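Posting this for the archive.
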Amino acid sequence: MSTTTPVRNVVLVHGGFVDGSGWQGVHDLLAEDGYNVSIVQNPTLSLEDDATVTARVLDLQDGPTVLVGHSYGGAVITEAGTHEKVTALAYIAAFAPDKGESVNTLIADPPPGAPVPPILPPQDGFLFLDRAKFADSFAADLPPKLSAFMADAQVPWGVEALSGSITEPAWRVKPSWYLVATDDRMIPPPAQRAMSERAGATVAEAAGSHAIYVSQPQVVADLIKQAAQAAGSRQ
């Protein structure tokens, strides 16, 4: 006779142009429900480095863990998620590359008519979004003051992070969940659906911008809890 114990540890990984503070709403909801939540602060200099930083946080977990990534953070969890403590993956409007793929290869051929993210030409090996277009492309459903702050607080995204390729994709060996943001203007929703289908993920959809992890923390927390419950039943 086996009993189901939900996974209680959650590690949250942010994407490019932002830091981990955007996870506060999701963190608070999960913490209120008794989850142990850790937030990775990746320097986003290279994929290899970010996977190493994420692995350090995973090392500190006291048992099975749900590893969550937003946007570029999806590439990070795909690379870092083979860690022995990771029992489930959750992608939030995120890249889910396969072996040998990178963010660069996934964005190389955008579908016809898809919005083009307003990424400025690299400066000294780093990328920024056009501040004037940040809200519309990244955070259209956030209060204007908050999206303006996020635009002004951008974290430089290293070109090497975009070109870093996956060695062994974790979603091929770990169960995954995926939240499609249907109003996303950074990663086209059809691309999100294609990546989630390829990964065999359990998929949910919600109307939201690329910043859905900030604008709709309850929807995101619910998906993570679903992953935690299901992963617990597999233990």
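The radius of gyration is 16 Å. The chain has a mean pLDDT of 95.
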